[in-house]
Amino acid sequence: MTQQLIVGLIVAAAALYAVWRWMPAGWRRGAAQKLAAGTHRAGWVDEARAKELAAEVKSAEADQADAEETWRAALMEIPNLASDETPAGGEDDFIVLETVGTPPEFDFEPRDHVELGRMLGAIDLERGAKVSGSRFYFLTGIGAQLE
Q1: How many other CB atoms are found less than 10 A from the CB of residue 123?
Q2: 38 occurs within a structural domain
Q3: Chain segment 74-127, per-residue pLDDT in tens
Q4: Whether the Cβ atoms of residue 142 and residue 120 lie closer than 8 Å to each other
Q5: Which domain range does residue 135 map to?
Q6: What is the DSSP secondary-structure string of 36-98?
Q7: Proportion of the chain above pLDDT 90, given as a percent
Q8: pLDDT more than 70, % of the chain
Q9: Do the beta carbons of residue 124 and residue 137 sit within 8 Å?
Q10: How many domains does the chain have?
């Protein structure tokens, strides 16, 4: 495959040389002057049409961006559907579906993870809530080292 490509390029180059060589001298000089002056492509492109096409492309790109934004907004309106087995309610009116094992009993008042994290200097809820909103936190000190 590669060998055929190379041979084809050599044949094409030889054909171009033959045409160039047997072209009348006046034509060769004119072609060489056009190549040197960079005007060999003059007349190939209609400048007004090129500007018109560029404006059409910009307009089409703007329309595409608008359509994509409309599509995205429409997709965001579609809610995530919950499974039929999921009970209705939130944190305040939850239903316990199953309990595995028996909860441990302590001879002291157990502390929750937030209180323990604050005592150890491992969690900063106030800064997390200020930056990202409710229920977010920053790990600090030993908490950051554990991460």
Answers
A1: 23
A2: no
A3: 888 888 887 887 777 777 878 888 889 998 999 999 999 889 999 999 999 888
A4: yes
A5: 113-146
A6: HHT-TTTTTS-HHHHHHHHHHHHHHHHHHHHHHHHHHHHHHTSPPPPPTTSPS--STT-----
A7: 13
A8: 86
A9: yes
A10: 2
